[in-house]
Amino acid sequence: MRDIKLVVFDIDGTLIDDDRKLISENIEAIKKLKALGIRVVLNSGRTFNAMWKVRQALDLMGFDDYSICGTGAFVRRNADGKALISNPLGKADYEKVLALLGDEDVQVSVHTKNYLYLNEEVPNRGFLEDQAQVGLAWMKFEKFEDIEDGISRIAIAGEPYVLDSIYEKYGQVLKKDYKLMRNEVHIMEVLNKNAGKSETLKKLCEKLAVRADELMYFGDGINDVKSLDFAGVGVAMGSGKDEAKDVATYVIGSNNEPSIAKFLEEYFCLND
User: Fold this and answer.
1) Contact 252/238 with Cβ under 8 angstroms?
2) Which domains does the chain have, with CATH numbers?
């Protein structure tokens, strides 16, 4: 058993079940970890205030508690949302994506710490599914400068086959300036080139003086693969993507069961 100092959790498909709820046994096991002096960090594609229920339920509200949010766009201090690491996007990036896509049958939204910004009269299915997952309010803007600071990502929402086509046509062009992520079939994320869940996790580990072999990571998605591979102990959900399970040290049960609690209790002997 490794000497683990930091345990990092993805949220969707990992910490929460398919009804987007936390499992009580998992909550209690994570609180026991904290009582042992082990740091707990969240690492999600969600922006900061789309994670508030999870932070609050797990008592991760201190000035020394942190969240990696927006697929690595920011590391924020949980107590007050202050950014320790920032990889934002801006107006020029938004305009570049809009110009490139032209009349494609998609909608382009902007994710910030508190809101989803979308200038459409009727949101499409992809946007609504994304909104339901992250749980943030939808806002419009008259001019881009009205958007609050700290843009985590630009999201291209549409039917999966349309996004497949867009990736074929524009993927290589976008990759010259941005990082692209397709963790959900209805959304393509455009990120700052320096963002990414694993890239920002490595930077946070450096700040916290935690080595890779002292890190345990739980995840389920394609955007968790590099983090699972980087961690000394990578734990993939059995209900997750094959790509995540292929690189993990351990594969546990479903996110709809207290699989995380069972693993933590056995690995750290929490009930002894």
Assistant:
1) yes
2) 6-86+196-268 (3.40.50.1000), 91-192 (3.30.1240.10)
